[in-house]
Amino acid sequence: GSDVSLSKAVRANLLSLQNTASMMDKTQNRLATGNKVNSALDNPSSFFTASALNSRAADMSNLLDSMASGIKVIEAANNGITALTKNLESMQSTLRQARQDKSFSTKSFEVTDASVINLVGGQFGDESKSLKLADAVKTAGVKSELTTTATTAYIGPSAVAASGSGATAIEAQGIGARTVVSNNEANVAADKFAVGAKFTVAGQEVTVSAITNTAIANDIQTKLDSVDSTKNKYKVTADGANGFTIETLDPTAEAAKVEFAAADQAQKASTSFNYSAVPDSMTVGGQTIETGATFEDFVANLEKGQKDGKYTYTADKASGNITITASEYGAPAPVTSIPTNVVGVKQVDTLTITGPATAAGNITVGGIQITVANGATAANIGDSVRAFFADPSNNSQAVQDFRAMYDLGGTGATVTFTAKTPAAPATPVTYVAAATGVAGTSTATTAGVAAVDGRTDVAAVLGASTKTVAAATDEFSVSYDGKTANISITGVKGGGVATNEVDVSKWQAATITSVNAQLEKAGIKGVEASFDTNGKFSLVAKEAEAKTLAITGTDAVSLFGSDAVSTGSKEVSALNATKTVDKFVELINREHGGKVRASNDNGKLRIENMSTQELDIGVDTNGNGAVNALKVEGNSVRTNLSKQFNELRDQLDKLSDDASFNGINLLRGDKLKITFNESGTSSIDIQAKDKNGNVRGINASNLSIESLVAEDLDTDEAIDSFLGKLSSALTELRSQASAFGSNLSSVENRQSFTKNMINTLETGAANLTLADTNAEAANLLALQTRQQLSSSALSMASQQDQAVLQLLR
Prior knowledge:
By secondary structure, this protein is α+β, with helices and mostly antiparallel strands. Helix content is 34%, strand content 22%. A hairpin with a 5-residue loop joins strand 27 (527-531) and strand 28 (537-541).
């Protein structure tokens, strides 16, 4: 307590002993816990850094569990694919065994030249086949042939009305190409086609004698008929108030080119804009066009929308500029959903000097000092300001920045500062007068407004316009021997001009040449076009083959009737055999080889049933109606193998369903998501996908493996087809296994990386907090020694105090 006084020596030794005891406690705590930092009080920086590192390591340790589970899911899927592969290989073996098996059943029986044999069942199904030698004589095949159904000669497309503005029905067979001119007479007041106006038709200049369309049509016809190169080649027809039509009388010729003076030519409305100005979607020609993520996406969407013919467009990728033009004359601008262009308004700051300088000094404009002489007038000061900024020798950074922002103007005492861009600045130029007697004002007279980069519209211009219409054609498609040709036929040259009579024979020859060329171009070389003596158009197979010639398409019915299909008959040769049995063998194998097989069994006819189904044979030996019914069993080996195949197929789906781990089955199409870092920004999604990247499960259906019926194994060709499907399925499985293998490698690599990262984090945290036990043990020993020494020193100090007691005795 405070009433006890200790000597200096005792107090010093006691304090030293206390410090040593405290240090020993700390050292013993480090040895007991193994940590040199046990709380934030020991070392805040190391404690919290180590805590953060350990927390991240713990988070990553949790991810390792997810990775390990994900690896097992992938391994389970791989196990399933391995089993599926073996199952498919077993199915292949089953089919190959079926293909190699030829244990077909047979029946043998007597036959005569009069015998009639009926076959039903087997590969024939319910269709009955009757065989007798009388039907085996040589017959000529019939060629496929299709002709027009009209009673009159065919000379091309019939007369139809011209389409478009100014349409006029031209009474002529075989309408040629034509140019339809729209010239609304309401525009006459605007001097469109005034008397004396000139324009060209088919290269000939026409002068307008009167402003009605009838008169203009007569002017054109007269001019064209007066020139040898265009005489009798065109027919011009007025269309009331709408315009006129110029038709070529030769349907093989192009439409006449019509050119007007610029003042008479109508212009289509258009809209121009930059891709950067378009909204998320916009309306073009009445359709909604999505902008898309890129310029290319937008152009592709424009291309799709263009199909309805309401607009055309041009697009420049480099600049992003796009122009959309209305397809019809007089139609409004096609784009309405983009704001129009707005010109930016620049801010103008005005400095007005209102008094002369009564002493030399400076004035400050925009933070820049300008010297003013004593006695300078307001106009002198204004001139000085303009001259200062115009002087290139004044090139300080402040002056350069000011010049970059403003253009100077004004006269006399008024100085204007016009911002070079609409955006800068928003406040007036700062003006400070330091020269005595100089007064003035500084105001912003106009606020700046930024420009809007939108669209620019060009309105439609009224006037004359042209539209070209192609020559009338009959169009149809010819199908033969697995190929199809699209055929187009134009009409004969004609049109009611007396000096230009129809030459049918020349047109027929030209049509035959044209159609045959179109057929050959499509690869159809077995069909040719022809005309009969009555002028009917025909398509005929060149050879007598049992192939179908069919006509479809736009004008198929009008030309060839509703049943435009004709099938030829294959030519049949006579039998070569001389003996009755051999004749039947030759006949049966020629007509039905592959479904049954005939052979000579010691003078009897033997029929082999090449099917898994029972074959019924009715034998009328003498042709007198007495039928002997025979049954030939089907191939039981192939039948049983088809059942075995189906059982293996069922296992495909079961194996796929069982390849799951922890509720996730990649073979069923489930998605496995594995997260790689504690923030969730790095992960991998694993799913079964087909070769096109579409998500799908792996089962018999998705592998295109169908179940079999016994009949599917009747022929080797059918078995080969199924083997091909199995081969494709195996390829898909191997591809999927490769994809899963790649995914597994990625996850395992990330798992190894995560383990190393956890070790790094925990080691780093340990370095900050763990104690060095060797060092701490040495410290403890030293402290114990010090403690003993301190105790001895304290004892000696106390003995000195006890010496006083000796004096009191």
